[in-house]
Amino acid sequence: MIYEMTYQVRVSDIKEGKHWYETLLNRQADFLPHDGFAEWEVLPGCWLQVAEGTPSPNSGPIRLGIKDIVLERERLIVELGIDHFQIHGREEVPVKWASFKDPWGNQLGFFQYLDDSEIDARTAALTRHK
């Protein structure tokens, strides 16, 4: 079950990029986990991430929130023939994440909250809105 997603864009200067997106979205970032990174929850469960880096017309990936990143990775390897991909994390970030490409080179990915109660709360909120 997909219950959340993020989309990341890259900017060459995080200070300018953060200001531009604050102006665009008419509010401050919701989450600043580390230097060079800002996030806004644009819609419930839909996050825009702005990261300092080299801008690219193919920036991304679009990451989907899932309950078990390891099981989903294995399912994609078997069912879609996707190459094995790494799962990443950082101490100050409450999720682990992974990226992969579709057959056309589009960057996609998954993320999973480290705290199961966070997953439960978010999925419960979605079922209440159905």
Strands, count: 7
Percent of residues in helices: 25-40%
Q: How many structural domains does the protein architecture include?
A: 1
Query: Which segments are poorly predicted (pLDDT under 50) over 5 or more consecutive residues?
Result: none
Our Rg estimate from Cα atoms comes to: 15 Å
Described by strand count, sense and barrel closure, the largest sheet is:
7 strands, mixed
Distance between the termini: 14 Å
Task: Examine the secondary-structure arrangement and name the CATH architecture.
Answer: Roll
| Outline | globular
Structural class: alpha/beta
Strand percentage? 25-35%
Strand/helix succession: EHEEEHEEEH
Mean pLDDT: 91
Give the number of helices: 3
User: CATH topology, which one?
Assistant: 2,3-Dihydroxybiphenyl 1,2-Dioxygenase, domain 1
Which strands sit side by side, in order, in the main sheet?
Answer: 2-3-1-4-7-6-5
What's the level 1 CATH class?
Alpha Beta
CATH homologous superfamily heading: 2,3-Dihydroxybiphenyl 1,2-Dioxygenase, domain 1
Provide an overview of this structure.
- By secondary structure, the protein is α/β, with parallel strands linked by helices.
- It has a 7-stranded mixed sheet with strand order 2-3-1-4-7-6-5.
- Helix content is 28%, strand content 33%.
- It has a single domain, classed as Roll (2,3-Dihydroxybiphenyl 1,2-Dioxygenase, domain 1), CATH 3.10.180.10.
- The two termini are 14 Å apart.
- It has 3 helices and 7 strands, in the order βαβββαβββα.
- The longest helix is centred in the last third of the chain and has 13 residues.
